[in-house]
């Protein structure tokens, strides 16, 4: 999307698919004065996605219904990020919100895949379209950044470098498609809990800031094969996630024993990403990981894919 969005006809309902994000490189610096950690990350959007549907409602208000993965555990009121997003669009447009939002979740909750941020990005786009709000890219990005560090990337999708607290994006022209097996677990890790553990481990001299994203960016831009990518994956939160949930180590080792090129904690975990050579390898690897047990669910995904406002 570029410039202003100005849909022609009024909409009865709008549905958008919003991808999960992974961080093939996640460098975590020290906490800043505002409490956020400085990040040097490379995001990639993958084909695992939530669907956000917005429909007009007769009465004023924002009504949220949720189906799918972890639906019962999520707030449907103001604590839901999609609710906050709808409110922001209405505020921007100077209207009273009257919308029914339905979130069909496939992205595991609190799994390090930015499911909540994806729903927020989806709600921004769906509400702007539903209400015919002319909103430029820069303004949409500003609203997104106010909702959370990962929300701007969830709008755009593709591949991008993220700096600041992750919200300052530089697009990367990735040439190719990479295939992953996404293994969810029975546990959850809240992102603040994981940052706290990173800080605690650093006080003990464990871990450092991997600030240099150039090698992996060059690999994506040159269409490197999966073997090369496997050697370049970085996650400064991995030790913290495994320290909080030691059972992740056996899931990771199991996947490697089954032939994964790499095992990578997704964001702050506890979802584990296994890199495959190609789609055929990914299908076989997913089957073997499922049979081995230890994961709650096992999905196939590829990236990069576009976001709802790409
Ligand atoms: P990230 O990788 O962005 O740190 P995450 O993928 O680990 O996040 P989310 O699935 O985004 O985690 O959920 C984090 C918390 O956000 C949940 O525990 C939940 O209570 C809250 N939340 C609010 N709205 C949503 C939503 N629409 N979907 C999922 N979680 C939501």
UniProtKB/TrEMBL annotation:
SUPFAM superfamilies for the chain: GHMP Kinase, C-terminal domain, Ribosomal protein S5 domain 2-like
One GO term of the biological process aspect: terpenoid biosynthetic process
EC number: 2.7.1.148
Annotated InterPro entries: GHMP_kinase_C_dom, GHMP_kinase_C_sf, GHMP_kinase_N_dom, IspE, Ribosomal_Su5_D2-typ_SF, Ribsml_uS5_D2-typ_fold_subgr
Domain GHMP kinase C-terminal: residue ranges: 225-289
UniProt keyword list: ATP-binding, Isoprene biosynthesis, Kinase, Nucleotide-binding, Transferase
Alphabetized GO MF terms: 4-(cytidine 5'-diphospho)-2-C-methyl-D-erythritol kinase activity; ATP binding
Listed name of the protein: 4-diphosphocytidyl-2-C-methyl-D-erythritol kinase
Origin species: Glycomyces albidus
Chain's gene name: ispE
């Amino acid at each position: 999307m570029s410039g202003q969005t100005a849909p022609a006809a009024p909409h009865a309902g709008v549905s958008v698919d919003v991808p999960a994000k992974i961080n093939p490189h996640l460098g975590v610096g020290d906490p800043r004065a505002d409490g956020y950690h400085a990040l040097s990350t490379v995001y990639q959007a993958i084909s695992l996605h939530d669907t956000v549907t917005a429909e007009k409602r007769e009465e004023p208000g924002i009504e949220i219904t949720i189906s799918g993965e972890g639906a019962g555990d999520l707030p449907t009121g103001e604590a839901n990020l999609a609710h906050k997003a709808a409110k922001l669009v209405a505020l921007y447009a100077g209207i009273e919100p009257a919308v029914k939002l339905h979130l069909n979740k496939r992205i595991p909750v609190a799994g390090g895949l930015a499911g909540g941020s994806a729903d927020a990005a989806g709600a921004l786009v769906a509400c702007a379209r539903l209400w015919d709000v002319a909103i430029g890219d820069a303004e949409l990005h500003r609203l997104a950044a106010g909702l959370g560090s990962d929300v701007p990337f969830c709008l755009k999708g593709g591949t991008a470098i993220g700096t600041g607290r992750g919200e300052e994006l530089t697009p990367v022209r990735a040439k190719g498609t990479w295939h992953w097996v996404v293994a969810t677990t029975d546990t959850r890790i809240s992102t603040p809990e994981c940052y706290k553990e990173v800080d605690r481990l650093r006080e003990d001299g464990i871990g450092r800031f991997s600030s240099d994203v150039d090698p992996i960016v060059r690999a994506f831009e040159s269409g490197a094969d999966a073997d090369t990518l496997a050697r370049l994956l970085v996650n400064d939160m991995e030790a913290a996630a495994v320290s909080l949930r030691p059972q992740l180590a056996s899931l990771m080792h199991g996947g490697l024993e089954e032939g994964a090129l790499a095992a990578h904690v997704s964001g702050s975990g506890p979802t584990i990403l296994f890199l495959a050579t190609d789609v055929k390898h990914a299908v076989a690897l997913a089957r073997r990981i499922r049979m081995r047990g230890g994961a709650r669910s096992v999905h196939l995904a590829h990236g990069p894919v576009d976001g709802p406002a790409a």
